[in-house]
């Protein structure tokens, strides 16, 4: 019984599960300072999709109709393997890149 209580305490704590370089799962216990550092981390943007560069702000790059390299009110994003899915709410569609985009404004592979 004591072992069960120990397991329950571990699973209810603020631990994280990480994958090591050897592809092994490790349970890392984090203290409050580490948790705060995890929350504060910021990564600057290095690429933009749906626009030609970081200074453009108009839906569909100012065009009347959407193109395979434009977005209007993107709402959700998901990555699956190398694929990128974006819900393009303003154009009532989902755009998909079969390989993660590598340059600003890269055209998508598929439109649903």
Walkthrough of the structure:
The chain has 112 residues and is α+β, with helices and mostly antiparallel strands. The protein has two domains: 2-40, no CATH class; 59-111, no CATH class. Helices cover 18% and strands 27% of the residues. The chain has two helices and six strands. The protein has helices at 2-12, 32-40; strands at 15-19, 25-29, 74-80, 83-88, 93-97, 110-111. The strands form two sheets. It has a four-stranded antiparallel β-sheet, with no helix packed on it. It has a two-stranded antiparallel ribbon with strand order 1-2. It is globular, with a radius of gyration of 21 Å. The chain starts with a helix and ends with a strand. The model is unreliable at 1-15 (pLDDT under 50).
List keywords for this structure.
112 residues; alpha+beta; 2 domains; 4-stranded antiparallel β-sheet; two-stranded antiparallel ribbon; 6 strands; 18% helix; globular; disordered N terminus
